[in-house]
Amino acid sequence: MTGKREKIQEHFTNGFEIGFGVGCIMTFVVLWISLLFGAQLTPGVTYETMIAIFIYPLLFLLTVGTVFLTAGAVKHLQFKKKIREEKRQQQAEKLKEK
Questions:
Q1: Measured between alpha carbons, how far is 54 from 35 in angstroms, rounded to an integer?
Q2: Domain residue limits at 74
Q3: Rounded Cα distance, 65 and 50, in Å
Q4: Distance (Å, rounded) from C-alpha 21 to C-alpha 38?
Q5: Using one digit for the tens of pLDDT, what is the confidence trace for 30-89?
Q6: Does the pLDDT at position 1 exceed 70?
Q7: Are 28 and 64 in contact (CB under 8 A)?
Q8: What is the rounded radius of gyration, in angstroms, for the C-alpha atoms of the chain?
Q9: The whole model's pTM is what?
Q10: Which has the closest alpha carbon to 74: 18, 2, 6?
């Protein structure tokens, strides 16, 4: 059976991963929008040159965000399933005692 401290730590870790993933994806969106409109502000810079400069950070943010978001969500759902199974086992033990 998991202790209270382990539950809190697991819940925090899952939430952190999900939050970090969402943050990376939102940063990707903001950077993409800024590239889209930033290229229109200056006449010498084109959209293609801006994308050529920022393509690797964009891909990195999108990849890291997706990985962390997926990992956090899967671990969170697995943790909830584990907690439900423990509760069922406790209820079954109580019924056996009666």
A1: 8
A2: 4-97
A3: 22
A4: 25
A5: 999 988 888 777 788 788 888 888 899 999 999 999 999 999 899 888 888 888 898 898
A6: no
A7: no
A8: 22
A9: 0.75
A10: 18
Q: How far apart are CA 43 and CA 49, in angstroms?
A: 12
Split into its structural domains, the chain has a count of 1
Per-residue CA distances from 8 to 49, 55, 59 (Å): 47, 38, 33
CA distances to 43, 53, 84, 94 from 98, in Å: 81, 70, 21, 7
The single residue listed with the structure tokens 């293609």 is 48
Burial 31-53 (b: 16+ CB within 10 A, else e): beeebeeebeeeeeeeeeebeee
